[in-house]
Design a protein that fits this description.
It is a single chain. This protein has 202 residues and is mainly β. It contains no helices and 16 strands. The protein has a single domain, classed as Trefoil (Acidic Fibroblast Growth Factor, subunit A). 0% of the residues lie in helices and 36% in strands. The strands form 3 sheets. Strands 1, 2, 6, 7, 10, 11, 12, 13, 14, 15 and 16 form an 11-stranded mixed sheet that branches. A 3-stranded antiparallel sheet has the order 4-9-8, with no helix packed on it. Strand 8 and strand 9 form a beta hairpin.
Length: 202
């Protein structure tokens, strides 16, 4: 389903909680996807809506008092593709983002001064530079790359679709931690209308 179909989506704001999200550019033109489950396939951009654009974002830390308080420290997360159960990880050269089923990786997700806009990055130690998700352009097929330049960092939005996505594929796994679950979109690949689970009113 083309993104231009304007499927209603609800944008998230505040400290990001565990949930199943679409990750899209701030202009909402394209979405992050993992096209297949092959080892080290790179995350790329797409303007099509199907299950491979869904990511389980799992909050690993609890550095802030609530989702709506001013962030005092960036939180760490796993980012896991819903269909293929592959973790988003840096490539060995730290130049792009790939999917790997056998290597969990922690990312920081930082809300910018504009509510609902986020940066995704990692750093090995506090002395190392932040390495941000970035894009060369916003065209479908563009890989998600990494940069140490803040000026080159891509701004992202996390949102939930209000309508079911369609897919004939069976998902390999969908087991995000629910300790801080915000919302989970339950996709049934057999075409049954999914449920939107809401454990916190945003």
């Amino acid at each position: 389903m083309p993104l231009s179909s304007q499927v209603p989506r609800r944008l998230y704001q505040g400290v990001l909680l565990t949930g199943r999200y679409l990750i899209q550019t701030s202009d909402q033109r394209v979405l992050v996807c993992l096209a297949d489950g092959n080892r080290r396939s790179q995350l790329t951009m797409t303007d099509e809506l199907d299950d491979n654009v869904l990511f389980d974002v799992v909050k690993l830390t609890n550095n802030n008092s609530s989702a709506h308080s001013e962030s005092t420290k960036d939180e760490e997360y796993n980012i896991i593709n819903f269909v293929w159960a592959n973790f988003a990880t840096p490539t060995q050269t730290n130049t792009a983002v790939e999917g790997r089923a056998d290597e969990e990786f922690q990312w920081f997700i930082q809300e910018t001064h504009i509510s609902g806009n986020y940066l995704i990055y990692f750093r090995r130690t506090v002395l190392d530079p932040k390495v941000y998700w970035s894009l060369d352009n916003r065209n479908p097929g563009t890989p998600v790359k990494l940069t140490t330049k803040l000026s080159g960092a891509q701004v992202w939005r996390f949102c939930l679709p209000a309508l079911p996505l369609t897919s004939s594929r069976q998902t390999r796994r969908s087991k995000p931690s629910q300790d801080n679950a915000a919302q989970l979109l339950v996709i049934n690949p057999r075409g049954i209308k999914p449920r939107l689970l809401v454990s916190e009113v945003l």
